Amino acid sequence: MNCKWISKIDERKKCHREADSSGYCIFHKENKSSEDIKLMMDSIYKEEINEFNGFIFENEFNAEEILTYDYKLLNFSETIFKKEANFRKYLFKKNVIFNYTDFRGQVSFNACVFLENCDFNKTKFNKVYINDKIFEKVKFKGPDLVVNKVENFPRMDGIIFSMCTKFILKNVEYGKSECKHGKINYRIARNQATKIGDYEMIGPYYYKERIYSSKMIKRSNYPTLSSYLVEKFFDQIAHYTTGYGEKPWNILFVIIAIISSFALLYLFVGIESSNSTLITLNINNLGNYSASEIFKTYIDLWYFSMATFSTVGYGDMVATSLIGKALAGIEVFLGVTIGAIWASVIIKRMIR
């Protein structure tokens, strides 16, 4: 009878080894006895296995003791490490894959050397050990390090990349208590993207870094409440208006919202046209206006609001009341300020 193990990634991938009474082979069965564990390790040595798809390691896994033979690829897809997975000081000579790998115990890659690619895709790390710096003194010399949709991915402090390595970090999220991890890891990714000239990714990494930095702003970190509120206010402004300089199209929506809001205010304050006609709506008699009249009046004042915001000021419509002049002055100030921000964001991205 063949082993019942079937890959969750690709159902066409099955195990054809002989199963015991549990229905699984020695590599895929759980709760192995000490004799089973010894037989499994002996088989790995004898067969020089490099495809560990779905293997279950009950005891500590020590790469330097187990992976002593040559291989073309190391594939740990869907592998379960129930206890410590120790890759410390190991030399990965070829590509290594950790797809859907489940690290239930501690993990260490400290002082490892990667000569080829490494993929972490939908890998699970134990949240208990999320504060461990498992990549300290790691030398990554391979072309690509990919980290995608990984749960509880630890900090990458101390990793050393070559000048040609592309580090891809995407869809990796952290909770409120792990914001520092997100900030550090996305900063490392941004620095590496800058180093190799991967300009398309610098912006997204910087945005994620700033998002986690924003979540770390706490009242306890500031001497006064006012300094905290000012920092929080400007951080939120930068977030929602420009996406920290990485989402310039956000400004367009902000501009349209401001122009539309002021046009609505002018609708009730009143703006005088060049022929001395007051363009306004009487708030006490709104029921006397048709929908088309309200819409036409609003469009006229939207035009005035846009001309005011852009500081063009054609002069065919002017604010004559005190409130109208005050609103126009505020809108001009917003227009000049946001226009300068828009220009700086666009120039920054063009230079990059």
Key features?
8 helices, elongated, 352 residues, single chain, alpha/beta, 5-stranded parallel sheet, 40% helix
Describe this structure in words.
It is elongated and about 100 Å long. The two termini are about 60 Å apart. The protein contains eight helices and 19 strands. Helix 6 crosses helix 7 (about 290-310) and helix 6 packs antiparallel against helix 8 (about 320-350). The strands form five sheets. The chain has a five-stranded parallel beta sheet. The longest helix is centred in the last third of the chain and has 30 residues, at about 320-350. It has helices at about 35-45, 65, 180-195, 200-215, 225-240, 250-270, 290-310, 320-350, and strands at about 55, 60, 75, 80, 85, 90, 95-100, 100-105, 105-110, 115, 120, 125, 140, 145-150, 160, 165-170, 270-275, 280, 315-320.
In short:
By secondary structure, the protein is α/β, with parallel strands linked by helices. It contains eight helices and 19 strands. The protein starts with 33 loop residues before the first helix and ends with a helix.
Output the structural class.
Answer: alpha/beta
Strand content: 5-15%
Radius of gyration: 31 Å
Instruction: Tell me roughly what share of residues is in helical segments.
Output: 40-55%
